[in-house]
Amino acid sequence: MTFRRKIHILIASFTLSIAFFSVSCKKEKNEYNIPDVYVDVTISPALPSYSSLNAVGGWAYVSAGYKGIVVYRNGPETFSAFDRSCTYEPSKPCEKIDVEGSGLTAKDNCCGSVFQITDGTVVQGPAFRPLKRYNTSWDGNNLRIYN
Predict the structure, then answer these.
(1) What is the pTM for the complete model shown?
(2) Which of 29, 41, 69, 70 has a CA between 20 and 30 Å from the CA of residue 14?
(3) Degrees, nearest 5: CA angle 78-106-68
């Protein structure tokens, strides 16, 4: 076999390998595809609708984000804010988390996924990605939630 023939066989093998792997490597079914929605809201725990945020461990819903936002007070000056859209199949209308009775987890009643609202991690699937997080800034009186 000539050197030129060996090169052609090697190139053909390489091309077939690349084609095989690109076909066999499918995209994950559950991509993290929550739409980016502009968020820049300021809330005050002094208002009755957010008074639960006055205590560490308190949480509240905020009308912003893709399907709403859940805010959790982690400490005296620290908060977490997550989109209420479940990360399993966020385009489905029913994929939306609600805080459970414990006040520490949120469940999507459509797919059954459960998340910690302290940090957004998945407690129970089928979701495998954490909740979409928003930035927070606390000035001692007001909480700004933004992306």
Answers:
(1) 0.77
(2) 29
(3) 75
As its CATH architecture, domain 40-146 has 3-layer Sandwich (2.102)
Q: Where are the domains of the chain?
A: 40-146
Furthest-apart CA pair in the chain: how many Å?
A: 84
pLDDT tens track, the chain, 147 positions? 665 655 555 465 555 444 444 444 444 443 457 888 999 999 999 999 999 999 999 999 999 999 999 999 999 999 999 999 999 988 888 889 999 998 999 999 999 999 999 999 999 989 999 999 999 999 999 999 999
SS3 17: helix
